[in-house]
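To close the chapter, one final illustration. This time we ask the reader to focus less on the individual chains and more on the assembly as a whole: which components sit near each other, and how the overall shape emerges from the parts.
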Amino acid sequence: MADTTAASANDRTVDLAPVLDALATDGWCVRPDFLPAPLVEALARECRLRHATGGFHSAGMGSGAARVVSESRGDQVLWLEAHDPHPAVADYQGQMEALRLSVNRELFMGLRDLEAHFALYPPGARYLRHLDRFRDDDRRALTAIVYLNDAWEAADGGQLRFWPDAEGTGPALEFFPLGGTLVTFLSDRFWHEVLPARRERLALTGWFRRR
Ligand code: OGA
Ligand code: MN
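The assembled structure is written out below.
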């Protein structure tokens, strides 16, 4: 296999090979500790700062004219520009770029770019079961979520419920949104939902798009 490592801004080398293997075999992958704790802390701080200074808006379903603020999701989001000036956000974007290049090289997915946002679920917020591909926009090919929360427990709710079978009718898995964990999956294939969170729940959520 070709070199799948990527040096991040803090000189930590991330081995993407297990992620690529899982994507190739199963179409999805969960990796704890994908991002190092200091970077996760810096991203969480920046997320809270941008939220406190009013940058976020309520998330909706769909895009463009079809976008409606919906009862089905209670999170608030802030979209990132392609090259964010904040060092921690730039580091995250660099790691996502390394993932994009590796996926294209090894899995020939033809991913062109990443659209990503901070997501903040206030206590009580949830996101009902859905697929990540909008009816009016089929470019989303690969979802990549990185969580930014420390010491998450079952009592905190907010689990990602994920159906690994293509029909979404089999048993579901549940994952805690624990800081540094990467969840990535083919955007059009896997049903998932976010259970109601009982404390503030932070994530960086991204979608790699095809041409
Ligand atoms: C989404 C989503 C899951 C999560 O934003 O589309 O499904 O665990 N997020 O945050
Ligand atoms: Mn989703």
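Residues 52 and 184 are 28 Å apart (CA to CA). The pocket of N-oxalylglycine (ligand 1) is lined by residues 119, 127, 132, 145, 160, 177, 192, 194, 203, 205 (CB under 6 Å). With these observations in hand, you are ready for the problems at the end of the chapter.
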